[in-house]
């Protein structure tokens, strides 16, 4: 059996108009086998409901659990909750292919391997920005970020995030702040007195 053999579902064994449920526990071993770049650890329960409808098969994926990701703010690992439901359809054909939300399964094989679908549905549910809940970031790293952050007038979002990390006793007046050079080039000063209007 291949390393993903347990994720094979034999569609030919699915009885008409009956729902068959396949249960999986996607743990650290699953992510290691799939050689994931984004996710190395996690624990996601997956229930896959399979039902035959005439010449097609309906596969409903229900995922619930968490994965480990580096926090975008402090880089420490954090738990990212995953809860998702998705349905795809499968039917038999001559060779494997994907057409919109329908997967063509070679009839000679008769089975579909869902390991990659499980992984894709997890990856698609990772938010663009993933950070610890307020107060849970690595305080040492947050202090370092505060000291080295270039502050602009429109940085209200990032400042608000740092305030969530409990900065009541922090003296921002002593932070090193890089300010933009606001001095005017003296060559422009001499041009201010020139009247360009036609008399």
SSE topology:
Blueprint (H helix, E strand, L loop, with lengths): L7 E3 L8 E8 L1 H6 L7 E13 L2 E15 L6 E17 L3 E3 L2 E5 L4 E3 L1 H9 L15 H10 L7 H9 L21 H4 L10
Parallel strand pairs: 5-7
Antiparallel strand pairs: 1-8, 2-3, 3-4, 4-5, 6-7
Characterize the structure shown:
- It is a single chain.
- 19% of the residues lie in helices and 34% in strands.
- With 199 residues, the chain is α+β, with helices and mostly antiparallel strands.
- The protein has two domains: 5-123, no CATH class; 133-174, no CATH class.
- Strands 2-3-4-5-7-6 form a six-stranded mixed sheet. Strands 1-8 form a two-stranded antiparallel sheet.
- Strand 4 and strand 5 form a beta hairpin.
- It starts with 7 loop residues before the first strand and ends in a 10-residue tail after the last helix.
- The model is unreliable at 167-182 (pLDDT under 50).
Concise description?
It is built from five helices and eight strands, in the order ββαββββββαααα. The chain has 199 residues and is an alpha+beta fold.
Helicity level, as a percent range? 10-25%
**Largest sheet data:** 6 strands, mixed
Order of helices and strands: EEHEEEEEEHHHH
Instruction: List the uncertain runs.
Output: 167-182
The N- to C-terminal Cα distance equals 92 Å
- Average pLDDT, rounded to a whole number, is 80
Judged by helices, strands and strand pairing, the structural class is alpha+beta
Give the overall silhouette.
Answer: elongated
Number of helices: 5
Q: Strand arrangement, largest sheet?
A: 2-3-4-5-7-6
- Kindly provide the radius of gyration, computed on alpha-carbon positions and rounded to a whole number of angstroms: 28 Å
Number of domains: 2
Please report which band the strand proportion falls in: under 5%, 5-15%, 15-25%, 25-35%, 35-45% or over 45%: 25-35%
Number of strands: 8
